[in-house]
Amino acid sequence: MTSATHSSSFTAGADSADAVLLGLDPEQREVATTLRGPVCVLAGAGTGKTRAITHRIAYGVRSGQLMPASVLAVTFTNRAAGEMRGRLRELGAGGVQARTFHSAALRQLQFFWPRAVGGDVPRLLERKIQFVAEAGARCRVRLDRGELRDVTGEIEWAKVTQTVPADYPAAAVKSGREAPRDLAEIAQIYGMYEQLKRDRGMIDFEDVLLLTVGILQDRHDIAEQIRTQYQHFVVDEYQDVSPLQQRLLDLWLGERDSLCVVGDASQTIYSFTGATPDHLLNFRTKYPQATVVKLVRDYRSTPQVVHLANGLLNQARGRAAEHRLELVSQRETGPDPVYAEYPDEPAEAEGVARRIRDLIAAGVPAGEIAVLYRINAQSEVYEQALADASVPYQLRGAERFFERGEVQKAILALRGAARSGGNDPLLDDVVELGSQVRAVLSSTGWTGEPPAGSGAVRDQWESLAALVRLAEDFARARPGANLSDLTAELDERKAAQHAPTVQGVTLASLHAAKGLEWDAVFLAGLTDGMMPITYAKTDEQIEEERRLLYVGVTRARHHLTLSWALSRAPGGRGSRRPSRFLNGLRPGSVAPGTTAGGAGGPAGTGPARKRGRRGPVLCRVCGKTLTEAGELKLMRCEDCPSDMDEGLYERLRGWRAVQAKEQGMPGYCVFTDKTLMAIAEATPAEPGELAMISGVGARKLERYGADVLAICAGGEPEGADPDGA
Description:
By secondary structure, the protein is an alpha/beta fold. The protein contains 27 helices and 16 strands.
């Protein structure tokens, strides 16, 4: 194996340009010495891509082949740009411009605006969300906090994909966007937002790129001046460029091809923002003469971690998967990844906290440990578990659970209801604490069913769902507790988690972890429905979820733990399955397409192993192997024709509504829509047939079986009034 160090091997002031090349492996050296023509560097995680491209620039400068002022290196974050500038200074190439796309464009816009347009550059709008709120109000559309954030995201997506307000609805439908509001409403708000900016002489960050593109397209003299100055371009994280950023890059280049791009299609995880790997994947088509270099020597992770990462990608499908890189670890052997199954989420969090405490005791710094999860709402249980274990932690890329706006609003509502006591009409005839909490939170926008799609609205719902679960767990632990007891408990938890920020274990979403690395990484909550997330429906969305897990795995240098819980709460039915992405990778599981397994594959331990031995679950219409949870309930593909008795389905829904109201719980807690559909398709005639339907466990069979079978037989459930009186 060829070793390569992480620190610079070049001593500032050295006379020889060849000193820059010391310590580079053969592939990195090829990148560094290929200074002419288009170059495409396909760089896997941990392979030293930043090292390769900074040494390339420095070698060109030190050898006299590149003038520092003629090079523009662009990346996507200020942190990455700052790191690149620091490395270039160490290598004796301090005069090179290393900026983000927005920073480089803003600098050019400020310089050329007086000449191209006249007057001063419009003021930059730092936070567009306030303008979006005002635009919504002017359009008579009221947006809550979550919708406001999501609509702002839709506007940003439209702008980076160069979609004007009038074209937004059609473009959103074509792209399969999960919009937070009616598409026509968003288009109207988008148009009003643009009008407000024009009226007040302001521009946003997307406008910086759009206006720079406009000037370079219209003013050939300015475009030529920029091309005269910048003759060599380097683009990092090229898999994340948007159509607008690519358009700007094309205008910077003109007819030239002095371009070096670096990326990894297997780390494309931001498609919801407009990023696309197509430009990276099409690079050789656009530049047939391009030099392509693959960096596959992984200096970050142990062979055990790398083996798992490669295994994840070996199961991938789609165009990005066709360009996967097989990493080769350059580190000494380390411990095998740990796969941990727990009965419920609190047990999982406590298990993770214990393992972290053991690592810290063994000498691993707390700052070199991370717990990564799919969505920010998962943080609360880990915040609490680490606090209980006296382990310091810090959240990255998210507010602390009790500092989130929706949580604070909910606690205020609960405190008000507790003070009102029996005088709150929301609590009439509601006795059980969990039901009281659900009733109170309904006044803050809580609904029993989660919203469709992703984004801020879903995050907000997940936060409130976590609060409901916390209340239910508290009620189980303290029978007879009331709302006042609960709010006191919440205040204590909030106070315990308001300690000053310290250097501790990082808690972060998988998206927020991109570009970072730790000695020990815990990937938590890896169940189907969370990884991949429920609302990932299409093949492309599923594959992006797989890439997201790949990014999580490759954050680990030495220790890696992957865990999941079979149920949400203690005592719950262990019906969850480990993530399907781990099939064939974790001990005891079977790879997709083999004779054993099924959706999610057989679990390594416990009851899931017994379920897995049944073999693959096949669609009863077309015979295709089923993997989606909803399809498994129906025993058919979503797209296959249904033989459901519509009348029976509606009678079951009506019965469920009555049950939910009487018990003070959401309808899905009785039976989900998918389970009711499966019942209406199967029309079971006896308990054994009903028990075979996914979602009908022993407890629900005992509680609801007689009613459901009576309805399926065309009768009425016991105790029902046939006249509806």
